[in-house]
Amino acid sequence: MRYSRANVKHLRRHAIYPTLVIRQGRVVGTWKVSRARVRWNARERPSVMTQPPAPVLPAADGVSPPSPRGIPLGSPDYRRVTLALFLAGFATFSLLYCVQPLLPDFTAEFGVSPAHSSLALSLSTSLLAVAILCAAALSEGLGRRGLMFGSLVAASALNIAAALVPDWTLLLVMRALEGLALGGVPAVAMAYLAEEIEPRGLGRAMGLYIAGTALGGMLGRVITGHLVEAFSWRIALCGIGVAGLIAAIGFLLLLPRSRNFSPRPGFDVQYHLSAWRRHLAVPSMRWLFAMSFLSMGCFVAVFNYIGFRLTAPPYGLGQAALGMLFFVYIFGIVSSSAAGGLTERFGRRAVLPVGVLVTAVGVGLTLPDGMETMVAGLILLTVGFFFTHAVASGWVGRIAVGAKGHASSLYLLAYYVGSSIVGSAGGWFWAEGGWSAVAWFLLTLHGVALVAALRLRALSRV
């Protein structure tokens, strides 16, 4: 249907908005909606028509358009969602990073080098990065809730299996499969929040999810350290696996089913490739992905090799004392929760560079030999990292236009690839120059991260 220029002026003057009504591929009439009246002009009489149809927004297949029925901030369902995703984040990070304080034990028991021992973590994060892309695509057809639950159960079972294998190679195989299984949680959780939570409450919900990952990362390491000291590293891995199963059951019982998501039948490779290309074509998204790579890589590298420094002279810490060091994650829980409120008040563009600077100051404070300054540095590093991650991950859902699961998967792909590459590269710097070489390497990367944050500030308006 065409409107002349005179018709358009008339429609605008009287605030009349024509809406085509299409049935079985052809136009059957129009609604003319104005301040004064609603009029139906039919080309054929509709069978049942008591009110004008709601406008339908175009959307990519498998992705529902934004809905006004987002779960409101403070409602009972909002609390259920945030608690369920908190448990999912807790289980994911406790299962993934429980081996980090065990790297010196692996070196001693299996006779491998420090860099080689880090494969117990790097293999998991590398395959997790690949699995995230597949999981985001699969969730478009299988649904969000069931895929996340299945991933948590499978990863918990594989963590228990890793504790029972007799040699280093099989342990690495179990850890690699565990990384694949965990891929069904992070990207899907971010997409679920972006689809189901109203925009006003999204920043806070994402912050609570990140707080769950911080708590999982902390307790996974702390509990592991104490169980190793009391029993063995095998008992420690079993204990974390059982805790993951319990968290998975709580997640399933709490999380409401998706309301604003319609599964896409089948698996269209071209559709998924097109969705990923569309997100990569947005400059601000590319800088967000770079931020994800750098911030996570630096954070993991610090905690991969700080254990080797602190178990050696002059510190000589045991596993239980080393595990207690991970209580600095409490500050990450607080900072990630606070990030949502600060973002709503000051905007993402203002607060993201602050998080990067705080993280860099934390790395710098680990350079002196004093234990007090080192602990202070780890606290600031943790605060800055979780603050940065909470802000950046929430930003992805705001910038992405459609296919939010694909956008989240690319962010987390960069996140875990950074964990694997920078985390393993830190081993080379440790072998060549000790902790000072590791710290200066990471400070250089934080300089690049600050450039990314400033570019985002210039490019984005959301």
From TrEMBL:
<feature type="transmembrane region" description="Helical">
    <location>
        <begin position="350"/>
        <end position="368"/>
    </location>
</feature>
<feature type="transmembrane region" description="Helical">
    <location>
        <begin position="172"/>
        <end position="194"/>
    </location>
</feature>
<keyword id="KW-0812">Transmembrane</keyword>
<feature type="transmembrane region" description="Helical">
    <location>
        <begin position="206"/>
        <end position="227"/>
    </location>
</feature>
<dbReference type="GO" id="GO:0022857">
    <property type="term" value="F:transmembrane transporter activity"/>
</dbReference>
<protein>
    <submittedName>
        <fullName>Inner membrane transport protein ynfM</fullName>
    </submittedName>
</protein>
<dbReference type="InterPro" id="IPR036259">
    <property type="entry name" value="MFS_trans_sf"/>
</dbReference>
<keyword id="KW-0813">Transport</keyword>
<feature type="transmembrane region" description="Helical">
    <location>
        <begin position="233"/>
        <end position="255"/>
    </location>
</feature>
<feature type="transmembrane region" description="Helical">
    <location>
        <begin position="287"/>
        <end position="308"/>
    </location>
</feature>
<dbReference type="InterPro" id="IPR011701">
    <property type="entry name" value="MFS"/>
</dbReference>
<feature type="transmembrane region" description="Helical">
    <location>
        <begin position="409"/>
        <end position="431"/>
    </location>
</feature>
<feature type="domain" description="Major facilitator superfamily (MFS) profile">
    <location>
        <begin position="77"/>
        <end position="461"/>
    </location>
</feature>
<dbReference type="InterPro" id="IPR020846">
    <property type="entry name" value="MFS_dom"/>
</dbReference>
<comment type="similarity">
    <text>Belongs to the major facilitator superfamily.</text>
</comment>
<keyword id="KW-0472">Membrane</keyword>
<feature type="transmembrane region" description="Helical">
    <location>
        <begin position="115"/>
        <end position="139"/>
    </location>
</feature>
<dbReference type="Pfam" id="PF07690">
    <property type="entry name" value="MFS_1"/>
</dbReference>
<keyword id="KW-1003">Cell membrane</keyword>
<dbReference type="GO" id="GO:0005886">
    <property type="term" value="C:plasma membrane"/>
</dbReference>
<feature type="transmembrane region" description="Helical">
    <location>
        <begin position="81"/>
        <end position="103"/>
    </location>
</feature>
<feature type="transmembrane region" description="Helical">
    <location>
        <begin position="146"/>
        <end position="166"/>
    </location>
</feature>
<keyword id="KW-1133">Transmembrane helix</keyword>
<feature type="transmembrane region" description="Helical">
    <location>
        <begin position="374"/>
        <end position="397"/>
    </location>
</feature>
<feature type="transmembrane region" description="Helical">
    <location>
        <begin position="437"/>
        <end position="456"/>
    </location>
</feature>
<feature type="transmembrane region" description="Helical">
    <location>
        <begin position="320"/>
        <end position="343"/>
    </location>
</feature>
<dbReference type="InterPro" id="IPR005829">
    <property type="entry name" value="Sugar_transporter_CS"/>
</dbReference>
